[in-house]
Sequence to fold (141 residues):
Amino acid sequence: MRFGPSAAACLMIVSLAACQQPGPPPSAKLTPLFTTVYDGTYRPTVSLTKSGSGVDRTWCQTQPPDALRISGDRFNLAIPHPNVPGNPTPTFAVAIAPDGSFQTQSIDGTASFAGHVSGGHLQGVVNMTGCEYTVTADRTL
Fold:
């Protein structure tokens, strides 16, 4: 049996189409590669939990920021010390892991900050020479 050029082309197209894998069903949802589940505005509190022996507790006094803004699962936190000469202010650039945990050093290397975010609640501990703080924050609506 002989086929003309257009019939042969049709047979080739049909054969190639039969070899292709079917795509996902129209109702299938694709999972994004990167999600930002912790993003939002949080209202923080910073509480002094410990001060070192011989440390003047007033030096550990600090004022928390009005808000923490988490974007792309990242945020910054500064802990000012207005009663200490020179007002040292350790600042943290925090990246939240997919499981909600975070652990980082201050930009100047003088303090550490570790904690966890879950269900719209952030909790962590800041350790620095002479002062330790608990940081808590809840996502606002």
Observations:
- Residues 5-19 form the longest helix (15 residues).
- The longest strand covers residues 40-51.
